[in-house]
Amino acid sequence: MTVATAFFCALLLQPVAAQTLYKSTMPDGRVVYGDKPAPGAANVEETRPDTSKGGFGGTTAREQEMLKDMEKARLQREGSQDKMQAAAQKLKDAEAALANGKEPLEGDRLGTAGGASRLSESYFERQRKLEEAVEKARRELDEARSGK
């Protein structure tokens, strides 16, 4: 924090000094308010506003209830956003696992009598499970988006 910023913050925290307010009544009956007496005023009254009760007043029961409702709604929105982000990440991870799982692992190929090879049932079972995981993650993301 710079010195200028600290000085500015210190000024903001100082209590506001009450400024003198002048109520000047002109000869024609008009009333003029200002920070100094109006020239030619027939009557001038000097007052200082009471600033001892600075800050905001208390909140009503209705305002407190509205604040609670707004806080509850904010927490629900944030929870929904967190749930949606987690579901999106889960889908991304499942899609990456599916893409990485396309390559056969050691033992996924079986030799044939003609010298060639074919993919084993365990390879296809692993692919099915990876695809199911992607579909499940998509459903969860859709549910999170719809707010269910």
Percent helix range: 40-55%
Taking the sheet with the most strands, its summary is:
3 strands, antiparallel
Beta-strand residue percentage:
5-15%
Mean pLDDT equals 83
Descriptive overview:
53% of the residues lie in helices and 14% in strands. By secondary structure, it is an alpha+beta fold. The protein has two domains: 33 residues, no CATH class; 79 residues. The chain has a three-stranded antiparallel β-sheet, with no helix packed on it. A two-stranded antiparallel sheet has the order 4-5. β1 and β2 form a beta hairpin. The longest helix has 41 residues. The radius of gyration is 37 Å and the shape is rod-shaped. It starts with a helix and ends with a helix. The mean pLDDT is 83.
How would you summarize the topology of this molecule?
Layout: H1 3-13, E1 21-25, E2 31-34, E3 43-47, H2 61-101, E4 109-111, E5 117-119, H3 121-146
Antiparallel strand pairs: 1-2, 1-3, 4-5
Features:
148 residues, alpha+beta, three-stranded antiparallel sheet, two-stranded antiparallel sheet, 5 strands, single chain, 2 domains, 53% helix
Briefly say what this structure is.
The chain has 148 residues and is α+β, with helices and mostly antiparallel strands. It is built from 3 helices and 5 strands, in the order αβββαββα.
